[in-house]
Design a protein that fits this description.
Distance between the termini: 91 Å
Number of helices: 9
Number of strands: 0
Structural class: mainly alpha
Strand content: under 5%
Order of helices and strands: HHHHHHHHH
Helix content: over 70%
Radius of gyration: 24 Å
Shape: globular
Length: about 230
């Protein structure tokens, strides 16, 4: 026969277990809801990024991605796209000091993202793209030093993900504008463009927010520079 005291203890334990289950379910639900909201916003912003064309478009998006990164400080995608926006602004702008200022701003986002995910291949690719942006501002003065830096960043990107097609695409760009005496030139670039082209065909993004750029331009560069060589 079960005593009233034991019944009370069992009821008390059941209440605690029930409360714990409710608490865990509620907390998990909030987390899932928050994560879902984050994903919805980021997917929408990524689509807007793909449609952006002007400096103002990219500036507005960069500000949005920065706000998202402030709220989601453990995620690298918002920082990545904020940096990408400023790199695009640098390529669009015609004033060299402003180009550098945009790249300086992009660097701050890359640095923050690398602090969170130092082994993310895409972030090192983005770093290499930024270095190539520095080169186009003053090829004569910056070509050699920033080309080396870009290659180093791409080697790190390749180490973390050898299947990343953007590694080979940007490597091809780097080699294409490197003098023949230093191992550059079109022939060497074409091998990399071809590898990139093959990687793009089999590439499957790891995440809905993963970068997907570069394939069309790589194909165009290959067609313009390399088709006659095959």
């Amino acid at each position: 026969m079960v005593s009233r005291k034991n019944l009370n203890l069992n009821e008390s334990k059941m209440k605690k277990v029930f409360f714990f289950i409710i608490l865990v379910t509620f907390t998990t639900g909030l987390f899932a809801q928050d994560n879902s909201s984050y994903m919805m916003v980021m997917v929408k912003q990524k689509k807007a990024y793909n449609m952006a064309r002007s400096e103002q478009d990219f500036l507005s998006l960069a500000n949005s991605f920065e706000r998202i990164s402030n709220a989601e400080s453990d995620k690298w995608h918002p920082l990545y796209y904020a940096g990408m926006c400023y790199i695009n602004m640098s390529f669009i702008n015609d004033i060299n000091p402003q180009k550098d200022a945009y790249l300086d701003k992009a660097q701050t986002y890359i640095d923050k993202a690398l602090e969170i995910y130092p082994d993310e291949s895409e972030l090192h690719v983005l770093q290499a793209l930024l270095y190539q942006g520095r080169i186009q501002i003053d090829i004569a003065q910056r070509g050699m030093s920033y080309s080396v830096k870009a290659n180093e960043a791409l080697e790190r990107a390749k180490e973390y993900n050898p299947e990343n097609p953007r590694v080979y695409y940007l490597s091809g760009l780097n080699i294409r504008h490197t003098p023949l005496t230093y191992g550059g030139g079109v022939d060497s670039a074409c091998k990399l463009f071809k590898t990139a082209m093959e990687k793009y065909k089999t590439y499957r993004p790891e995440h809905v927010l993963s970068p997907t750029w570069g394939g069309e331009r790589n194909q165009r560069l290959y067609n313009e520079n390399c088709v006659d060589q095959n």
